[in-house]
Amino acid sequence: MPVISQRKTITLALLMGSCMSAPITAAYAQQDTAAGRTTRGLDEIVVTAQKRSESALDVPISIAAYSGETLEERTLRNLEDISLVTPGLTLDQSGGFGGQTVSIRGIAPTAGAATTGFYLDETPLQQPTTIFSPAVVPVVFDLDRVEILRGPQGTLYGAGSMGGTVRFIQTQPDLTEASATLNAEVAKTDDGGVTPQFSIYGGAPLVNDRVAFRAGFYYRDEAGWIDRHDRDTGAVVEDDVNDTQTIAARLALLFQVSDEFSISPSVFYQKTEADDMDLYWADAGLNNTFTDRAQPEDDEYLVANLTADYDFGAFSVKSVSSFINRDFSQINDWTDSDGASLPFILGGIRSEVFMVPFEPAVLTDDFVGHMYWSTDQKAYSQEIRFFSNDTGDSKLSWIAGFYYQRSEYERIRHEYQDINAESINTLGFPIDDIVFQGPLSDELGLPVSYFDTVDNVESEVAGFANLTYNFTEQLSASAGVRISRTKFQASQVQNGFWVGGETSAIGTQSETPISPKFNINYEPSENHTLYASAAKGFRIGGTNPDYSVSTTCAPDLPGGSNPTEFNSDQLWSYEVGSKNRLAEGRVNLNVSGFHIDWKDIQGAITLPTCLNVYTDNLGDAKVDGFDVELGVQLTDSFTASITAGYADGRYSETVMDDYGQTLVQKDQELGVPKLNGSATLFYDGQIAGVDTFGNISVSHAGKYERTGPDGVVGADAEIRDAEAVTQLSGRLGVRLGAVSLSLFAENLTNETPELGKTRVFGGSPILLIRTLRPRTIGAALKYDFN
C-alpha cells in the first residue's frame, strides 16, 4: 500500500473534524431545545503537558489524558492496557529478551536509545534499548492522571521524546483536606490462578495550610496461566509458571514555607518479581512451554525527587532534582541455543575427534544452558526553569530553563552450563578444558563459557526556551528551541569460549543537537481551537564494541571492522489539528493529521556467524497519519467515547551493508500496527434507586509486518505477519455511600492473538509466542474515608 501523502493526510483529518462536528452540534441543539433542560458537559482534565496547568482541550498539541478515576473505571492497570485504548501508542510485544518497547505514531526503536519519553511526575525514566531491560513503567496506583503527548517533545522534554512522551502524574498532598481510599479485588483467570490485589493511599494536612503529606501502598500477586512441561514425557513440571508479584509504595510531603515558596520532597518504590516469562512454545500448544528451567525476572527501583517553587509575581521559578536507582535481573533458558551450536563449534575446534557431524540434539537430553542478565542503573537529573505568570495584561508568555542529566548503567551477562558426565562422554573429551575459562569459573563459582560487562555513562546538558505571543484574543504563535550537549561513554569487556578469549573496547560519542518547535494557534471561539505545528526531535547516539578483535566475529567483517560509534537520529514532525467543544459541552471532538520525516534511523545489525549485534544509522523513513477522539454525553447517564489512530510508516530508501546484504528495503514497514482504536460506552446513574456505574469497551489494533520482506537481513516469513488484536472488557458496579462494589471482566471473549512471535535463537525451529491474558473475571471493593 503506498504511503499516504502529507497533503491527503492533513486534508482527511480536517474534513473528518468539520464533517463530524456539524451534524453532532445540530442534533444536540435540537434535542436540548425540545427537552427544555440544561445539559451537563463532559469532564475536562487539567494537564501540564507544556509545563503549565491547562485544560487538555486548550493545549495545542495532540494529547490523550486519563484521570485516575477513569483509569480505575476502565480497568486500565498498566501501560499495555492504556495502549489498547490510546490512538498512536503501541507496545512492541515481539517477545525478545529485554522486555517490551514503546512507540508513539510509529516511531519505534529497534536499537539504540528509546524513542518515547517516560516521566513519573517531573522525573525522566527512559533508558537505552541496548541495556536489555524493559522500560521503567510505574504501576497505575494513586495517580491523578496519565498524559500521552503525541509528536516530538524535545524542546521541553529533551532527548528520547521523538515520537512522544508518556507522563504518570501522582496525586499530590492537599494542605486543607484529609482523604484516604482503600481498594481490594480478587480475580480468576481462565486456565490460570487467582489474582489478589490491595492498595491503600491517602493524605492529610499536618499543619493546616502549611504542611501536608500523602502516602500509599500497593500489592498485587498476578496469577500465571502458562504451564511448563517435560519435553520428553509431556508431563506438567509446573503449572501457572508466569505469576508475578508487585509491591509499590510512595510518600510525598508538601511544605508551604510562605505564600510564595513551597518545597515538595517525594519518594516512590516499586519491586516486581516474575517467576517466568509470558511466552509459550508454538509446538507445545497454546499457553504451554517446554523450557528446561524457569526464567525469572526481578525489577526493583527507587525514584526520589525534590521540587521547589518560588513565585516572584511576574514570573515563577521551579527547581526539580531527581534520582533513580534501579536493579534488574533476568535468567533465560539457553539450553536449545547452546545444545544446537556447541557441538558444531567444538567439532570445528577438535576436528580430529569427530568423524561425523554432531546433530543439534546431542547435548539437550541431560544438558541445561543458562544466560544471566543484570542491569544496575543510577540516574541523576536537575532542571531549573523560569516561566511567566498570567497577569492578564501581557501578550507575551514564556518559559526558559537549564537541564542536566547523568545516567550510569552497568550491564552484566554471563552464560553457564550444567555439564554432566554423559555429555562429556558423548563429546569424547573433557569439555571444560575448552569451553570454560578457568579464571572466570573460579571467580563466579560457575562453569562459565561467556562473560560480558558493559559500563555506559550518558549525559545531557541543555538550555531551552519557548515564547508565546498573543496577537489577538484569538490568534497566538509560539517558537521554542532546545540546545543540548550530549555525551555517551562506554567500556566493554568480554571473555570466554564464545568470543575466543578476552576482548575489551572503550568508546566515546558526543554531539550538539538543536531541537526547535514552532506553533500557531487560532481560537475562533472559546469552544474551538485550530493549530499547526512543526517540531524536531532526536535521541542520542552511542558506541559499539570493536568485534574485529574477536576470533569468532572477525570473519563476519570483510571490511576489517564494524563502526565503533553511531550518531543520533532526528525527525521533523508537521501537524495540524482541531479541538472542539460542541453541543453546549456535550460533545468533544479532537482531530489531528501529521507527517514525519525520520533521518539516520538507529538500527541493529547482527553478525551472521558470532551472532553479536551492533548499532548503525540505517537510512530514512516517512510516517503519515491521523488521530481522532470523540466524546459524547448521550444522556445524563450515558457517555460514549470513540478513538482511532492511523500511522503508516515506511523506509524511504534501501540500505545495504559492506558485504552486499540488504539491511532495510524501500517501502518496508517500520514494524508497528498502522491502525488502532477503541469504543467505550459509560453509564453513571440510578437503577431502582441505587447509584450504579459501568462501562463496556472494545479495543482494536490492526495487522502489521514484524520483519522485512524476503531478501532483507532478519526477514522471517513464519513470523512476519502480525495478527489484528481485538479485546472486549467491561465493569458494572454500585455505590453504597462510601463503599463501591463492582464486577469486572477483561478479555471477555477470551481472544488469543499472537501479540508477539520470535525464535528462541536465530535459525531455531522453536517459536515463542506472547498472547493476551486469558479471560479474567473479578470483583472489586473501594472504600473512601473522606
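Next protein, fold it too.
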Amino acid sequence: MNSDLNYGWKLYFIAFLLLLGPAIVNSHQQPWRDHFVDHGTIHEMMGQSHWGKLDYTKFEGVPNYTKPRVYPSYGMKRVFNASHALLENILDHNPAIPAGYIAVKGDDTLALGQKVEFNDWYELVTEYALIFLWICLLLVIIILIPFIAVCYCCFCCCRRCNPGCAPCDYARDMQCMIILGLLLLLMIAVMICGGVIAAFSNRMMDRGLKESAETVRRGNEDVCIFLKHTKDHIHHLFSNNYQELINHISNILINAHNHISVDIVDTSGADALEELERILDNMPEALILMKEVTNLEKQIRFLGDQLRDGIRAIRRNINEAYLFVGYPYVYYKFLKNSLIQFVDTSKCLHFDEMPDTSVYVQGIEEIIANQYALIPKEAILRFQFISEAIKKNTDKIGPMILMDLGRGRDELLEHSVRIQNIIDAVISDLHINTWRTASSFEDIHDKTGKHRSIVNSIVCVMILLIAIVLFVGLISGFCFNRTNGVTCLLLGMILIFFCVSFIALVGLFHFVIGIITYHGGCAPFKDRDYNEIFRQLDALLDVSRYVPNLDPDQVTPPPLRVSNAIAACEAHQTIFQVLLENRIFDINQFQTMTILKTGTFDPVEDDSDFSKAVLLTTDEIEKLDQLSKGNLSTYRSDYYLENICKDFTPIILGGSSDDHSGYLASQIRLLCKDLLNTHTNAFRTRAALYTHARDLDKYQIAFVKPITAAYENLKIRLAKIDKLITYHALSFGVGITTLVNDVIQAQLFIRERGKEFISSILTNLTSHAHEEVEMYLDKLVFDCNSKIGLCEPLAYIYYRSVGEICGRLVDPINGFWFGVLPCAILMVPALYIAHRLICLFKKHPLYTGGGHFAEMGRSCPVCTGIAQVAQPIIPQFVGAPGLIERENAGDVLQLENSSIDETTTEEDMQRAISKRKRD
C-alpha cells in the first residue's frame, strides 16, 4: 500500500516538474518586448539588420588585351588540314622521324638539327618506304625530263607525226582530241589551283617569319596587362575592401553607445519622453494656432447665426405669401419641389455642440506658465547615466577590436605582397618559356637562304605561266586557229621541259623540310601527352623557388610543366586554383585565419547600478496627472469636425447667374414669371418674391462663402495643432496619460532588465564584428577562386604564341609543296597530251572531202586499195604535154605512161571510201 502511494507521489512530482520546466525556461527566455522579435526594436521588427551589413565596392577594372591583326586565310585551312591528315597517316612511327633532324635548344626552343645542316637525309628517307618511293619518283622526274627535252628538240619530234588519212580518221581523231583536251583541261585546272595554293602559302610563310617580333611584343603587353589587372584586383580585395571593413566596424563602435541607447529607449518604451517633450515644446506654437481657431470659431458662429435667421425669415414670408395669393397650383408646385421648407434645418448651421476654444487657449497658457516642458527635459537628463554606462563598456571593447583589425590588416598586406610576387614570378616564367617556344624554327629563314621567297615566287609564276599557255593553246586549237593552238602548245611543252625539274626540286626541298617541321611544330601540340618532342619542349618550372621557407618535414612540390599549368587554365580556373593544385599557395587558408582575438562581451560592470534609475519623480508624475485633467484635456480635433460641416443649406441659395435652375433664388424668379401668367393681380406677392431672391443671392455671397472659407481654415489649423500636441490621434489628456504610463513602464524595465539588455546588445555587437570579418574572409577566398586572375587569357596567350609555330610557319611550308608537287607530277603526262594534240591539230587543219583528191588526179590507196604510183619527174603524156586526156569523162579515169594499166569508176571509189569509213 505504501509502495503504491510512493509510486503515485513520484508520478505527481514528475508531472509537476514537466509542467514547471517550460515555465522556468520561458522565464529565462522572456522576450524583451511583447509581440516583437529579437531585442524588441522597431528596425528589427521591420526586418532590418541590427547593426547593418557592409556592401563592399566592386572591382571595376577591365583588362584590354591586345588583339592580333587578322589576316585573310585565303581558304587555306582545308589545304593545311589535308596536309596534316596526309602526314599523320604517313608518319606513324614513334618517334616519327629519326634523331638529329630536330634539336631542342635551351629545353624550350625548337630548331633544325645538324643532319639538316649537313644534308644527311638517308635515315629520314629510309625510315618510310612510301616517302622513299615518292622521293625516287621526284628524282626521276628531275633527272630524266631534261634528257627527254633534249631528245625531243634535237629529233624534231613535234614534226614526226603519223599523217594517216585525214578524211578517213576524222571521227576517231575528233574523239581522241576531245578526250585529250578534257584531260589537259583538268590538268591545267589542277596546275592553276596548285600555283594559287603555292603563292598563298609563300605569302603566309613570309608573313609568319616577319611576325615573330610582333608576336613577342603582343605577348609581353598581354602578360603585363594580365599581371597588372590581377595585382590591382588583389590589392583592391586585400587592401581596399579590408579598409572598408575597418571603417564599417569603426563607425559602429564609435556610435555604439548612441545606438544602444536608442535601442534601450525603443525597447523599454522610454521614447515616450521624447513624445512628451515634443508635445510640451510645441505649446507656444499651438497657442498661436489655437487663438486663430478661436477667431474662426467666433466668425463661424456669428455668420452662421445670421444666415440661419435670414433664411428662416425668407421661408416664413414665402409660406405666408402662398396663403395670400389664394393657393395657386404653380405656387404649390414650387413649395413641393423646391427645398425651401428645409433650407434652415441643416445641422451645419447648428453650433451648439462645437467646443469652446477659449477654454483650450486658457489651458495652453497655463501649461506654458507652469513650465511643464521642463519635466521631460529633466527626465531625459536623468537618462544620461545609462548612456554613460553604455559608453564605458563600448569604450572597453572598441580599442581591442580595432587593434585586432589593424593587426589583421598588416598580416593581409603581407600576404597580398607575397601572393603578388608569386603570381608575378610564375606568370613571368610561363611567359618567358612560352615566348621561347613560340620562337621555334626561326632559323629556317637563315637555313633556306635570303632568296627563298623570290625562288618560291618564281616557281609559282612558272606554274601559272605554263597553265595559262597550255590553256590558250587548247582553246585556240579547238575554237579558233589551230596553227596558233599548235604554237601555244609547243611553247607550253618547251616551258615544261625548262621548268619542271626546277619546280620539282623546290617542291621536294619544301616537302622534306615540311615533314621535319610538322613533326616538331604541329604534331607535339596535338598529342601532347604522348609526343616525345613535346615532352622535351615542355618547360619545367621549379616550384620550390616560389615557396620560400619550407619546413624540413614539408614535401618539396614537384616541378610544374608549362603545359599542365595551361591545361588547368583551360577549365576556366583562376591562377589561385592553379597555384593550389601545384602546392604553391593555398588561398583557402584564409578561411581559418583568426583576425579578431576578442571574444564575446562580458556582463556590464557591477558599479553601474540600474535598480535605482529614475526617469520621472513622484512630483512630476502628479503634475503631469493634473495636466492630463486640465482645461486642455478634452481637446481633440474630431470634436470640431464632427459638429461643423460646409453643407450649410441643402440647396445653393443664389449666385451671380440669374438663370441657373439649381439655385433657390432662380427657382423663386421662375415662380414669379409663372404667377405673372396665371395671377396678374398678384403684383405685391411677385415683388416680395423678387426681393427675397435678391436677398438669397446676397446671403450666398455675404454668409455662405465666408463661413465655408472659415471652415476650411479651421480644418487646416486643427490639423496642425493635432501634429503639435496630440499623440496617436488621442485626446490631449488621454495622450498625456498614455505617455506617462509608458515612461513609468520604461523606468521599471531599466531597473529590472536594463543591465541584462545592454550586455545582450554588446554581445551582439562583438558577434556582429566577428561575423563581418568571417564574411570578408569568405568573400576574399571566393573572389580569389572565381574572379581574380582568370587564367583563360593566359591560356589564350600561350596557344596564340605556341600555336603560331604551326600556323604561321609549318603549315605554309607544307601548303607550298602540297600545291607545287602535284603540278610537277602532272606536267609529265601533260607533255604527252600536248604532243598528241599538236599532231592532231596539224593533221586536221581543214577537211574538204574525198572528191577533191579524186578530181586532182590523186586517190587514197588505203581507202580504194589501189597501189600508190609515184609521179614521174618529167611526165610524158599522149597529146598535149602536161594535159590529162579523159576518155568517157565522168565514167573512167585513164592515167597514161603508168606501169599499171587499171581503170576505176567513181562508184567503185565511193564504195571503197564508205567501206573504209565504216571500218
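About the second fold: Residues 1-28, 527-562, 846-859, 873-904 have pLDDT under 50 and may be disordered.
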